[in-house]
Amino acid sequence: MEKPEQAPAKLPTEAFARLPFIELAEISPDGTHIAGLFAIGGVQQILIAPLNFDMDKIRNVGVPDGTQVSHIRWANDDNILVSVYGLAAVERDQWYLSRILSVNRSSGKLTKLLWDKAGQNSGDILWISSDGSSDILAAAQGSIYSSDATFWPTVYRLNVETGKKRVETRGIEYVMDWSADHTGKVRIGVGYNDRSQQSRMLYAQEGSRSFRTVERADMGEEENLNLPFLFVPGTDNGFVIKEDSRGKSVVIERNLLTEQDIRTVYEAPDDDIAGVVLSFDGSRLLGVRLSGREKDVDWLDPDLKKAQAYLDEAAPMAEVQIQSFSRDQSKMLVHIGSSDNPGLIYFFDAEGQILSRIAAVNQSIEGRRLAPTKFVQYEARDGLEIEGVLTLPRGRAAKNLPLVVMPHGGPWGHDSLTYDYWAQFLADRGYAVLQPNFRGSTGYGDDFVNKGQGQLGFAMQDDITDGVKWAASQGIADPARVCIVGASYGGYAAMWDLIKDPDLYRCAISISGVSALRREVNDFGGSLRENLYTDQWKKMTPDFNAVSPLYAVDRIKAPLLLIHGMKDVTVDHKQSVLMQKAMVKAGKPSEFVSLENADHYFTREPDRLLLLQSMEAFLAKHNPAD
């Protein structure tokens, strides 16, 4: 075994807790400006700047109080669209409501589009004019109450500079989602009906304003609806993503009226298709986003393919992502980073092949190589191959290390070789970190996802345990020094593994975790798609209470740390409150850190810092790295 390099000095916790300096970056259609969410002094601001960052021409707007930015997009060369969401009190409850804002790059003027009141679905941008005008299409609710006719989103044509609007397509009962073609015509509606337990796809032919139902699917099986992301002009054809008869993820050209597949446009190699990249006007498929390890986007456009090849050659040891490009695709924003460094944002002039640095994503870590990561594979007890991400502390031999196993949230998600500030923080403190993509995870095909059905608390949990045993069998982990840490569903998994395998762990940390599954499912009450969400969870386990940590605390032996934000509306803060009360009542060792202003995703820098500090102190107490 090679002698490890000398362990580097530990970074301050604040370095890992810093918000990314730049997020959601987008280059203007004319390739002269950048817009994004910039963290300045630990506070996020919406900023528009020329690429030379001339201070006299920078326009910045504070993020409205109580809201968070989910998306930034250029409407034309002079205006950006900002989708925001925030918590609002609704009849003794807290709901996330959304809306759209526009900001002018010349004046910095902020315009609230549609109306002052936001809705649960009031920030859905369907189409942006490609001719340089200020028109867009957006769908929005006019009420949050399903008894009101305006609850069902109406599509409006908006002027982003004046805010003037007119109705393009009136809401239809049960239709919550709309999409438009590249000319700005509304073509698709998707309806969900809890009473009939069915979903349906409505379609309008080119030039028509009349919608007809062309496909139906049982609730919970919306993936069987062939929703087009691109319409072929002059036909009833559209491009859809689906799985073929061999289980391959493909893009198909399909006749939306006859429901007949016409041809295969693209076949993914061995990965799931995670999304697509379209031209600025939405008329051409430029690339396909993949969920696999080899590449982020498989470019179909020859110019973008050529640019990617040049950039990959320029930075062979890094992951290069073309994040945004100008209307003519000659100017780009590029992220160059790796799983062991948050990376930098560059401007790339493809014609001159000139790469110019804009900013480091995290200035406290800039240029420093952190802990190495790699994919690992191991066999679950029933023979299923499980893949995970292993992060090893730099400067320590990969032998008998203290281990933190960190299952992802969802559970419909997966971990990959991208920068993860939690994993890197823990590795910096001396821990090996294993992130298993247990059965039920996405990224490995529908069959792998479906293997999680009925296995929540059972085989899904065994896959995590088997990862720990694999790491110990390889000599990487010290089996006597293992803790489990997770957030959201991962928080549930951390608590349940503490119960299911009580002798395996020295401690556990649940962050925003679910302790009572039945209570979590009941929280969907009042949701438009209540039955859909409930059915999704019922498919995962036959008996909620039988696999809920709240009702099995007597089996816990190791200390448990609960961390939860009081502004979390994804997993109710009470889930941790109840678990802490049960632990105390049962005389079990536990700690509870309740963060007054934290949401589910810890989007505030002070909350990120307190989270990491709490994790570090608890692990040092119960499973010290040294």
From TrEMBL:
Domain Peptidase S9 prolyl oligopeptidase catalytic per the UniProt entry, residue ranges: 421-622
InterPro entries: AB_hydrolase_fold, Peptidase_S9_cat
GO molecular function, one term: serine-type endopeptidase activity
Signal peptide: none
GO biological-process terms attached to the record: proteolysis
Keyword Zinc in annotation: no
UniProt KW keywords: Hydrolase
Pfam families to which the protein is assigned, alphabetical: Peptidase_S9
Protein's name in the database: Prolyl oligopeptidase family serine peptidase
Organism: Allopontixanthobacter sediminis
